């Protein structure tokens, strides 16, 4: 911005202002509208997302990581994975952990509907709607 202001004196520079254009230029889609649904207790809704593969493996060979977010408390688990095949066992483990340690059932699971989150047998056993049942 300093170079632009020196080269083109008609451009004004405001030091205290944040440039919105930079943030908007990096977005690939529009922001979501604020949700009207609010959770009232822990494990009512969890969000799942998987990241990777990364070009560099960890020391132990992990190339992916799974993030699990509890909507009510905003507590986030970050689990390292060697492959996407580990996703189902990690999600099942977390749900069983919630039921055993907190004596509470996870009511809803939200994800980007990627195929790595289609655990139809597990969802049916726990009483969740499988993603393809909603189509």
- Gap between N and C termini: 50 Å
Largest sheet features:
4 strands, mixed
**What is the CATH superfamily label of one domain?**
Ribonuclease H-like superfamily/Ribonuclease H
The structure class reads alpha+beta
Element-by-element helix/strand order: HHEEEHEH
Q: Which strand order do you get reading across the main beta sheet?
A: 3-2-1-4
Helix proportion: 25-40%
Number of helical regions: 4
CATH architecture of one domain: 2-Layer Sandwich
- Mean pLDDT rating: 80
The CATH class of one domain? Alpha Beta
Structure, described:
- By secondary structure, the protein is of the alpha+beta class.
- It has a domain at 45-134: Nucleotidyltransferase, domain 5 (2-Layer Sandwich).
- The protein has four helices and four strands.
- It has a four-stranded mixed sheet, with helices on one face.
Characteristics:
alpha+beta; 26% helix; four-stranded mixed sheet; 135 residues; 4 helices; single chain; elongated; disordered C terminus; Nucleotidyltransferase, domain 5; 17% strand
List the helices and strands and how they pair.
Blueprint: H1 2-7, H2 20-26, E1 45-51, E2 64-70, E3 76-81, H3 87-101, E4 108-110, H4 120-126
Parallel strand pairs: 1-4
Antiparallel strand pairs: 1-2, 2-3
